[in-house]
Amino acid sequence: MKIKFLFLLGTLLLLAAGVLCFYFFRDNPHRQIRRTLNELCEIVSKGSGENPAVSGLKANRADKVFAPKCEIKIGRHLFDGIYTPTVLGANIMRFKFTFKWIKISYSDLEFAINHKEDGTPSAAKIFFTGQCTGVLKNAPQEKIDEIRDVEAVVINTEKGWRITHLVINKILQK
Q1: CA Rg, the chain, in Å?
Q2: Which candidate, 48, 86, 97, 140, has a CA 20 to 30 Å from the CA of 114?
């Protein structure tokens, strides 16, 4: 009797552990979108000793983050427009070239996910705070530390979540 009870209790505990693992470790849209943003931060960031070849390889991964056509609005007419991932990779390289080092990060991420009729996620509007910290090459004594509100639209493709629109606003400018 005691052995049957222990066996039943062990089986229930294993089942409960399996359900909890599935619930907490499954790959949901929130995690996938966070992974896309983490990849974007990795692509744009540059370490102090990073050589141009490594920067170029990182910039070539822009197609893992951006959709085939991505609209960018930064508030500077020079950079605003609709771009392909290849052009965005080249622009990222030009941007990184002006810094000795730069770190891009995000926080306060909020989601508004749209679903298809069958319940699968199709697109999402995301809002977050982006931070850019770095040191310029031409002015090594000047440290950059900027915070911006960012709005983006991401779509769910066969290859994962890709950014289609990106709007960067100054804080308190909407």
Answers
A1: 21
A2: 86
Looking at the chain, list the stretches that DSSP marks H as alpha helix, in order from N- to C-terminal side. 2-25, 29-44, 52-59, 85-97
Distances (CA, A) of 70 to 62, 67, 90, 102: 11, 6, 14, 23
CA distance linking residue 9 with residue 15, whole number of Å = 10
Question: What is the 3 state secondary structure string of 111-159?
Answer: EEEEECCCCCEEEEEEEEEEEEEEEECCCCCCEEEEEEEEEEEEEEECC
* CB 150, CB 167: distance < 8 Å: yes
**CA–CA distance, 89 with 16 (Å, rounded to integer):** 46
- CB count within 10 Å of CB 170 equals 11
Q: Per-residue pLDDT tens, the chain, 174 aa: give them.
A: 777 777 777 787 787 777 666 666 667 888 899 999 999 999 999 988 888 888 888 888 999 999 999 999 987 777 789 999 999 999 889 888 889 999 999 999 998 888 888 877 889 999 999 999 999 888 777 888 999 999 999 998 888 899 999 999 887 655
What is the side-by-side strand order in the sheet with 160-170?
81-83, 66-73, 160-170, 143-157, 121-136, 99-115
- Report the Cα 153 to chain-centroid distance in Å: 11
